[in-house]
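Dear Dr. H.,

I hope your travels went smoothly. While you were away I took the liberty of generating a structure for the chain from your last submission, since the lab meeting agenda had it listed for discussion. I wanted you to have the full record in hand beforehand rather than looking at slides cold. The sequence, exactly as received, is reproduced here:
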Amino acid sequence: MYARIIVDITHEKLDRVFEYSIPSDLEGMLKVGTEVLVPFGRGNKETRGYIVGFSKICEFDPEKVKSISGICEDGIDITARLVALAAWMKEHYGGTMIQALKTVLPIKKKERVKEKRYVRRTVSKEEGERYLEQFLGQHQQARARLMAALLDDEVIAYELLKRKLNITKTVVDALKERGLLTIETEQEFRNPIRATAQEQNTVPLIYTEEQQNAIHCFCRDYEAGIKGTYLVHGVTGSGKTEVYIEMIRKVVEDGKQAIVLIPEIALTYQTVMRFYRKFGERVSILNSRMSAGERFDQMERAKKGELDVMIGPRSALFTPFPALGLIVIDEEHEGTYKSEQTPRYHARETAEARAALEGASVVLGSATPSLESYYRAEKGEYKLLTLQNRATRQKLPETEIVDLREELRKGNRSILSERLHELMEDRLRRREQSILFLNRRGYAGFLACRSCGYVVKCPHCDISLSSHRNGKLVCHYCGYETQMIHACPECGSVHIGAFRAGTQQIEELVKREFPEARVLRMDMDTTKTKDGHEKILSAFANEEADILIGTQMIVKGHDFPKVTLVGILAADMSLYTDDYRAGERTFQLLVQAAGRAGRGELAGNVVIQTYSPEHYSIVDAAKQDYEQFYKEEMKYRSLMGYPPAEQLMAVLLSSEDELLLERGCRYLKEYMQMLLKKQKKEEIRMEIIGPASPYVGKVNDVYRRIIYVKSETEGALIEVKDQAEAYIEINEGYRKIRIQFDLNPMGVF
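The corresponding predicted structure, in token form, is as follows:
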């Protein structure tokens, strides 16, 4: 019998499976996923590897095949299902098997096990009292203190003896030898969740009819053995989290476990506590702030079946649960669910793949679902569960759109419109709170006219051109270039350029306009410290400030009952970026921001300031009309051939040698064009765009280029990727070029 093993070597481009014979003493002990030690290379250096399969027939000369040395005792066992998931990721997203395994197995080495020791009295209370008198009579004060403590408590933590009673190891050992006590040891897991008894109290919830219908639909399917994917589309404040909790409760009652994925920014204490109050000690978290020891402990607890629910960002998807029953992805539209490292996987697709391997269900939730998810729900691939009303029965806020072009005509050059200024004054008088949101996501130097709203676009891609420092306007999709312009081609105004306001400038302006107001600012500068986010949000929640100014980090996952006004400044900053998802991202941000207003008993107002008041993303966001936005955006995606109407693959190339990079791009494009001719014969329409320069063409002396491939089917793109990878592997010229494949990228390179 032979084992097929992938060796974890430093040269990641070497992605080979090696064959090793199985020694007789290890027969029956090995399985797919077992981490083993093998002799590797000419020097037979002992190296770690993972078993990815078995074979009765050896493909090589059996006499030359080396034997497995042993099993890694300090490694972490991985299941066959997780190895299969890694194989799926390699096939789907490219890269090497090693890279996929490293993603699926983020913890490789066993951390030091934390143990807790206890001292237990082994004699009766009466006998113990006799020994206490004996120790006191012999002036053995330390022994007397120890026995007196054990008479009060039969079991005492060892560390307390040293810290509080000043008892030495010698004294403990002396009583142990006389048979008066024993020392017991148990493994102690580091728990990243801290909760008080009061926090664990549960209050019965009364669910709305919509919530009940969503819960009932999932539970009915689960009982019938139907394991599908569900899309919970609920407006902001509709109680999606409560629906998730009930779905998880159903799965946990069946003896299964659940994973809850949330964006890192939303991994707040309040969010976690909602699950903790329901599931207690059997819920845990994973995040980047935890130590390696804490992460290791949570993985160990999960493997042993001591946890029911794991909450965390996309890396929590690989929690080694023995009986996974449900994966929940909250705010599924968030870009953070897409990995920026090879393999460039998306948590949504990977969750579906894992669920299929493990016989689990997937629940996606958002007030503004990604077009990909809603498209699949329309096609019937996902089951759509809708929550159209807020759980508190509170009305959605009234939303107004302010045309900044009109403000300019009236002589108002301030970032605050007259209407927003008026409402802010009103809220200060009423002692209510306001949020000012600056939409800076995707800020990439696009040019817009402040007089008429005209945006300079690529004539070939319907994507805004980006201004480069070399005085050129560039399209990052097709490479089109033109000279910088200094007057608007539409109206002739000289008021054309990039928006230059930041949160700091807005804070200074607000303090000048409203000197009596208490102002907080939340951005990258004010949240650098570990607990920077929580301090600012807690202060605002405790009504220590009247106005909160910030970027997108303030608009998601936060509930402030006293906030009755949200002002969205420069709503179109993300609308004309060089990204085909610009309209979708703008709509999502605006809806999420507007959703912060009027969540308590008080009614809310939202003011959206824009130079493009007629754009459907802004009009539909003001109405909170997702269905209408979806129809309009899909027209654009279908016309231009962008996902989900068609499939897109980005090939990202980078090298320190610019000439080598250009040559590599040219040869790779020619090879893919040859593949396309073959595809055309099979009546599969495909298109190659580029190579083009990304927005930043050079970083740290490394040049970057990008090639896009469009196709009607994802399978055709994967086939091109597989053949391109094989072509790259056999051509030495690509050894100095880093190449990544990205299916349906979330942004430009």
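Two observations you may find useful: Residues 218 and 247 are 7 Å apart (CA to CA). The two ends are 46 Å apart (CA to CA).

With kind regards,
E. W.
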